[in-house]
TrEMBL record:
<feature type="transmembrane region" description="Helical">
    <location>
        <begin position="101"/>
        <end position="121"/>
    </location>
</feature>
<dbReference type="Pfam" id="PF01066">
    <property type="entry name" value="CDP-OH_P_transf"/>
</dbReference>
<dbReference type="InterPro" id="IPR043130">
    <property type="entry name" value="CDP-OH_PTrfase_TM_dom"/>
</dbReference>
<feature type="transmembrane region" description="Helical">
    <location>
        <begin position="76"/>
        <end position="95"/>
    </location>
</feature>
<feature type="transmembrane region" description="Helical">
    <location>
        <begin position="133"/>
        <end position="152"/>
    </location>
</feature>
<keyword id="KW-0472">Membrane</keyword>
<dbReference type="GO" id="GO:0016780">
    <property type="term" value="F:phosphotransferase activity, for other substituted phosphate groups"/>
</dbReference>
<keyword id="KW-1133">Transmembrane helix</keyword>
<dbReference type="GO" id="GO:0008654">
    <property type="term" value="P:phospholipid biosynthetic process"/>
</dbReference>
<dbReference type="GO" id="GO:0016020">
    <property type="term" value="C:membrane"/>
</dbReference>
<feature type="transmembrane region" description="Helical">
    <location>
        <begin position="47"/>
        <end position="64"/>
    </location>
</feature>
<keyword id="KW-0808">Transferase</keyword>
<dbReference type="InterPro" id="IPR000462">
    <property type="entry name" value="CDP-OH_P_trans"/>
</dbReference>
<feature type="transmembrane region" description="Helical">
    <location>
        <begin position="215"/>
        <end position="236"/>
    </location>
</feature>
<protein>
    <recommendedName>
        <fullName>CDP-alcohol phosphatidyltransferase</fullName>
    </recommendedName>
</protein>
<dbReference type="InterPro" id="IPR048254">
    <property type="entry name" value="CDP_ALCOHOL_P_TRANSF_CS"/>
</dbReference>
<comment type="similarity">
    <text>Belongs to the CDP-alcohol phosphatidyltransferase class-I family.</text>
</comment>
């Protein structure tokens, strides 16, 4: 029987996969700069975002995991695209000139969101790590798109609430452990998440006015609050009887 890989070999493999993602971000940033005359600082903003994502992945990396696996590699590929979108979000003039391209890149990232789950199920490689990676990346993607809309002056800063609700939920769980219970699979929850991203992408397009963007965003916010409200009620009903925290 072959010996199990050492923790060091697992670590090296994980570092190599994350480094490959950084190399892809660098190539994409260079291509965007060459093809669309993007600001020279894009390589630093996009690279910095990706490094932050990779650091979070390493922090959550299970000791028993040998490598990312194909499903998580697709999620990582999505992270590279999101890093590029986040990198250009700090350049409003560039976004205004290339809003369609940014929306298209966001659509590609959204499409990959469905593929990684399918691959995980097909290969029997679904894991808590992969689910958390996917979920946290979704939340960050929403924050990035909200930031882009604020930079375009289409919607007020209140739209950041769409992305920050997830983090508020995590913080609340630190004080009320019953909120940390594992939630069951929910088609409604997944649909609302996709709706958030799709709505924000549409709002980026030049022909969508500020008034329409605000209306779409308010509808997305209402659906998001409904989704979180449903989950909180489910968790509250199943909290331990001796848990008095909220």
């Amino acid at each position: 029987m072959p010996a199990a890989p050492s923790r060091r070999s697992r670590s090296i493999r994980g570092w190599a996969e994350l480094a490959a993602g950084l190399a892809l971000v660098a190539l994409l940033a260079e291509w965007v700069q060459w093809a669309f005359s993007a600001p020279s600082g894009l390589r630093f903003t996009a690279g910095g975002v990706y490094v932050a994502i990779a650091t979070a992945v390493l922090w959550a990396w299970p000791a028993s995991r040998q490598g990312l696996g194909w499903a998580n590699r697709i999620t990582l590929l999505r992270a590279t695209l999101i890093a590029i979108v986040a990198g250009v979000a700090v350049y409003p003039d560039f976004i205004q000139r290339h809003a369609e391209g940014i929306a298209a890149l966001s659509l590609l990232a959204l499409s990959l969101d469905g593929i990684d789950g399918w691959v995980a199920r097909r290969t029997g490689s679904a894991s808590a790590f992969g689910a958390r990676f996917d979920m946290e990346l979704d939340a960050f993607f929403i924050v990035v798109l909200c930031t882009a809309l604020i930079a375009l002056d289409k919607v007020g800063a209140w739209i950041l609430a769409l992305g920050l609700v997830r983090y508020a939920f995590v913080i609340a769980g630190m004080y009320s452990p019953w909120l940390n219970r594992t939630l069951p699979e929910s088609y409604f929850r997944k649909t609302v998440c996709v709706w958030q991203v799709a709505t924000l992408m549409v709002c980026l397009l030049p022909f969508v006015s500020s008034a329409w963007a605000t209306g779409f965003a308010l509808l997305a916010a209402a659906l998001l609050l409904l989704s979180f409200g449903r989950d909180i009620v489910w968790l509250w009903r199943r909290r331990p009887v001796d848990d008095t925290g909220f």
